[in-house]
Design goal:
Shape: elongated
Strand order of the largest sheet: 2-4-5-7-8-9-10-13-14-16-17-18-19-20
Oligomer: single chain
Largest sheet: 14 strands, antiparallel, barrel
Number of helices: 1
Number of domains: 1
Length: 457
C-alpha cells in the first residue's frame, strides 16, 4: 500500500490545510495568520503592539494610534506521515485583511475585516492489490473551508496620576487604562470532499462520492484589555528614563448556532476520452443540518519594560479553551470516520524586543518569538487502541520594520513558524508544517491624516 499527496496541476495549491482531520472545515484550525501575531506564538488576548490589527481581540482597536489597514499572505510546506508512509506539498493563501477606522489617537474605533479560519484542503491517494478485483486506487480530495468576517466597536478610558521626577518635582502621566470591545462576526464557507474508487480492471465500474458542507454561523465576541504602569522613572529634567507595565486581557464568545447545507452524491463512473464521467447515480441525499459551536474564552497577561531610548522588552502569556466535547451529539455529522470531538485548549508564550533609538534614526525594527502548545478538538479512535487526542506545537519568530521611503508609521511584517500535529503514538498520525508570512500595515502620514478635516488659515 502506498500513500501519495496529490498536487494541483501547477504544483501550488491555494488551500492552507491538508489534514485529513480538518473535518468539513471545523476540525483543525490554522491559528492566527497575521504575521506579527503568528510570529509571537499567536498571542491575541493582550496586544503586543499599537500598530497591528488584532482581529481576535475586539478591544484592541481602541489602543491603536492611527487608522490602519492590514493585509497578509502566507505559504507553507507540509508533510503528512502515517507509519512508514509520507506525503508532502507546498500550499498557501491569504491571511487576515483588516481595517481600523478612527481619528488619530482617539479612544473610539470601528474594526472590520475578513480572515480565514480553517480549510479542508488535502489530497491523498493509496493503491491496494485485491485478490478478487485486482489493483485498486483510492483517492481523497478536499477543498474549500471556512472564513470569518467581522465588524466591531471599541472604546477606551485612561487614568492619570503624578509620578516623581527627580527629588523635588513630579510629572502627570497616563498610568492606567481599560479598553472594551464588542464584535459581531459571521462564519461562512463550503467544505467539499471528493473520494474515488478506481478499479483498474476495465470490466468494473468505478465509484465517486462527493460530500459538500456549506456552513453559516453568526455570533458575537466580547473583549477587554487593561494596563497599569507599575513603576515609572523620570530624571530631574522630567525626561523619561524607564517603566514597567502590567497588561491583562480576555475575550469570550457564547455558543453559536451552525447551519449546514449538506449534500452527498454517490455515482458510478467510467473514463471516457480520458475524463472521469458519471454514468449512474446510486445515492443522493440533501439536508439542512443544525448544531452548536461551543463557547470559547481566552485569557492573557504580559509584563513590559520600556527604556528611555525607546527600547522595549515584553513577555506575554496566553490561554485559550473551547469545549468541543459538547458537540459530539449535535455536530456528529461533521466528524466521520474513526474520530470524535474533544475539548480544545492552547497555551502560548511570547517574547518581544525593540532596540533603542540611534542618533539621527528614529525608526527601528521589532523582533518577536513565541511558542504554542495545543490540544486540537479531535480525538482519534482506533480499533484495539486507547483513544488519543490530536495535539500540536509550534515555534515562531518574526520581525516588523518600517517601510523604506515611507514617512508614515507603515510597516512591513515578516514571520515564520514551524510545528507538528501528532498523537503520542507515532504510528497513528503526524503532520509537519513550515509557514512563512508576509504582511503590511498602512497608516497615514502626519500631514495627511485620514478622517481628519483640513484646516486653513
Amino acid at each position: 500500500m502506498t500513500l501519495l499527496l496529490i498536487h494541483a496541476a501547477s504544483g501550488f495549491s491555494q488551500e492552507t490545510d491538508f489534514s485529513p482531520f480538518a473535518r468539513f472545515g471545523l476540525g483543525t484550525a490554522q491559528g492566527n495568520l497575521t504575521p506579527a501575531i503568528a510570529s509571537i506564538g499567536g498571542i491575541t488576548s493582550v496586544s503586543t503592539s499599537n500598530s497591528v490589527v488584532n482581529a481576535d481581540q475586539p478591544a484592541a482597536a481602541a489602543s491603536m494610534l492611527n487608522p490602519t489597514f492590514q493585509g497578509s499572505v502566507h505559504v507553507q510546506r507540509m508533510e503528512l506521515e502515517e507509519g512508514s508512509r509520507t506525503a508532502n506539498a507546498i500550499t498557501g493563501g491569504p491571511g487576515n485583511f483588516g481595517l481600523v477606522i478612527k481619528q488619530p489617537r482617539s479612544l473610539k474605533a470601528i474594526q472590520l475585516g475578513l480572515t480565514p479560519l480553517t480549510s479542508k484542503a488535502f489530497g491523498i491517494r493509496r493503491s491496494i492489490a485485491d485478490s478478487t478485483l485486482g489493483d485498486i486506487e483510492e483517492s481523497y480530495l478536499g477543498s474549500g473551508g471556512l472564513a470569518r468576517t467581522y465588524l466591531g466597536l471599541a472604546h477606551g478610558w485612561r487614568g492619570r496620576n503624578w509620578r516623581e521626577a527627580g527629588s523635588a518635582d513630579s510629572v502627570l502621566i497616563t498610568s492606567s487604562g481599560l479598553d472594551l470591545g464588542f464584535q459581531v462576526d459571521h462564519w461562512f464557507g463550503d467544505a467539499i470532499q471528493t473520494s474515488s474508487l478506481d478499479i483498474e480492471d476495465m470490466t468494473f465500474r468505478d465509484v465517486r462520492t462527493v460530500v459538500s458542507s456549506r456552513h453559516r454561523a453568526t455570533g458575537w465576541v466580547l473583549g477587554a484589555e487593561a494596563f497599569h504602569i507599575l513603576k515609572a522613572r523620570y530624571d530631574e529634567f522630567k525626561q523619561f528614563r524607564g517603566s514597567w507595565t502590567l497588561r491583562v486581557g480576555c475575550t469570550w464568545s457564547p455558543k453559536r448556532d451552525l447551519s449546514t447545507d449538506f449534500s452527498r452524491l454517490v455515482e458510478s463512473t467510467l473514463i471516457v476520452n480520458g475524463l472521469v464521467t458519471g454514468i449512474d447515480t446510486s445515492a443522493f441525499e440533501q439536508a439542512t443540518l443544525t448544531g452548536g459551536i461551543p463557547q470559547a474564552w481566552t485569557l492573557g497577561s504580559s509584563i513590559q519594560w520600556d527604556g528611555g531610548r525607546g527600547n522595549r522588552l515584553g513577555f506575554y502569556f496566553d490561554l485559550k479553551q473551547q469545549s468541543w466535547g459538547e458537540s459530539n451529539q449535535d455536530l456528529a455529522h461533521l466528524m466521520e470516520g474513526a474520530a470524535r470531538w474533544g475539548d480544545a485548549s492552547s497555551m502560548s508564550i511570547g517574547l518581544l524586543w525593540t532596540p533603542g533609538r540611534k542618533p539621527g534614526k528614529l525608526s527601528r525594527p521589532t523582533y518577536r518569538a513565541g511558542y504554542t502548545q495545543a490540544t486540537l478538538p479531535v480525538i482519534l479512535d482506533f480499533e484495539g487502541q486507547e483513544a488519543r487526542p490530536l495535539e500540536e506545537w509550534r515555534v515562531s519568530m518574526g520581525i516588523n520594520t518600517p517601510l523604506k521611503g515611507s514617512r508614515s508609521g507603515s510597516q512591513l511584517h515578516l514571520g515564520m513558524d514551524v510545528g507538528q500535529r501528532y498523537t503520542d503514538l507515532a504510528s497513528i498520525h503526524r503532520e509537519f508544517s513550515l509557514r512563512l508570512h508576509v504582511g503590511v500595515t498602512l497608516t497615514p502620514f502626519a500631514k495627511n491624516l485620514w478622517l481628519t478635516p483640513r484646516l486653513y488659515d
